[in-house]
Amino acid sequence: MGQKVNPVSFRLVLNRKWRSKWYANKKEFGKLLIEDLKLRKKLMEKPACQGTARIEISRLSEKIEITIVTARPGMVIGKKGAEIDILKAELSKMTGKEVWIEVEEIKRPDLDAKIVADGIAKQLERRIPFRRAMKKAMQSSMDAGALGIKVECSGRLGGAEIARTEWYKEGSTPLHTLRADIDYATGRAETTYGSIGVKVWIYRGEAALATKEAK
User: Fold this and answer.
1) Buried b / exposed e across 131-158, counting CB within 10 Å, b at 16+?
2) Would you say 194 and 157 are in contact if contact means Cβ atoms under 8 Å apart?
3) pLDDT by residue (tens digit) across 121-166?
4) Cβ(170)–Cβ(201) below 8 Å
């Protein structure tokens, strides 16, 4: 039996960082973890946060610092920072703590797995043929400088009666090589004939390991 593991968590500490940075005792840990999930869900539902790859959260006593990593920083910031002020007020009310929001821009969106997966999902919702959507996304990533990409779609593809899985691969995606910088993310398309899941793996080259050997 093949044992599958998330390529991002597999590389934690070596060449990946945690998306939540804080410490808590056993009593508080569960509460803070659920609060993180609620914050992420709330932000991802906002129209201003379309094109967001990930949300990083760090906590300092009664202050929460949120970094929104997005391909469209202008949408998140809004006119003269109006959108950010609204988000800050909503999240402060929700958590009862002081919230700071920072925006980080993604220079090459075609090399970010989450943005590619969401892009394919949006195309499937617009009834674009799944093969065309997958191949177009793969070509864009390879043109942007990816060394390899794998895309997988599962569900009632093309409105078929029986759900199936189809995948395409270009270049190399060495999932077992720890020093390989592989970005992985999932997306979901809500179509009229059911949900279609999208998975994307992007190999962006070798990353320096944060170990004594690398130093």
Assistant:
1) eebbeebbebbbebebbbbbbbbebbbe
2) no
3) 999 999 999 999 999 999 999 999 999 999 999 999 988 999 999 9
4) no
User: Both tokens of residue 207?
Assistant: 């990353």
Helix 82-95 × helix 26-45 angle, to 10°? 150
Query: Which CA distances in Å does 192 have to 16, 156, 157, 171?
Result: 37, 10, 11, 33
CA distances 90 to 39, 173, 183, Å, are: 10, 41, 31
Query: pTM to 2 decimals?
Result: 0.87
Q: What is the distance of C-alpha 170 from the center of its chain? A: 21
Q: How far is it, in rounded angstroms, from Cα 38 to Cα 44?
A: 10
**Per-residue pLDDT tens for 152-209?**
999 999 889 999 999 999 999 999 888 899 999 999 999 999 999 999 999 998 876 6
